[in-house]
């Protein structure tokens, strides 16, 4: 991942696999203390600060969403982000389970 720092903001780009939360996580507590809701535009990332806004682009179809980091993960080695089910629906990869994405940091704490 490449970071560019300017006046307290970082700009980053990262490419890799995205997955999404299984419905069994609905109502469970995320790492920042919020309750996971599949209809919210949220994500888990290993290192980005909580409340970081990231643009996620599905490289297979060029669809993009903006999500907010509120959890840690993914805990599968080859993945870079776990998305809420709503984000995965909008990126159109529910049937595949995973897809290659590009992450761009829009705002970081």
Automatic annotation (TrEMBL):
Q: What is its EC number?
A: 4.2.2.-
Which Pfam family would be a valid example here? DPBB_1
For this UniProt record, the keywords arranged alphabetically read as follows: Cell wall biogenesis/degradation, Lyase
Q: Which residues form the RlpA-like protein double-psi beta-barrel domain?
A: 14-102
User: Which InterPro entries does the protein's record reference?
Assistant: RlpA, RlpA-like_DPBB, RlpA-like_sf, RplA
Functional summary from the UniProt entry: Lytic transglycosylase with a strong preference for naked glycan strands that lack stem peptides.
Q: Which PANTHER family match?
A: ENDOLYTIC PEPTIDOGLYCAN TRANSGLYCOSYLASE RLPA
* Similarity-based family: Belongs to the RlpA family.
Kindly provide the name given to this protein in its UniProt entry. Probable endolytic peptidoglycan transglycosylase RlpA
Q: Which organism is the protein's source? A: Lutimonas vermicola
């Amino acid at each position: 991942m490449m970071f560019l720092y300017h006046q307290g903001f970082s700009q980053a780009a990262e490419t890799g696999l995205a997955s999404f939360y299984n419905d069994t996580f609905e109502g469970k507590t995320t790492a920042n203390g919020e309750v996971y809701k599949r209809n919210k535009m949220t994500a888990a990332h290993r290192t980005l600060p909580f409340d970081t806004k990231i643009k996620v682009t599905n490289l297979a179809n060029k669809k993009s969403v903006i999500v907010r980091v509120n959890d840690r993960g993914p805990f599968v080695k080859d993945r870079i982000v776990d998305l809420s089910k709503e984000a995965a629906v909008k990126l159109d990869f529910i049937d595949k389970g995973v897809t290659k994405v590009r992450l761009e940091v829009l705002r970081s704490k």
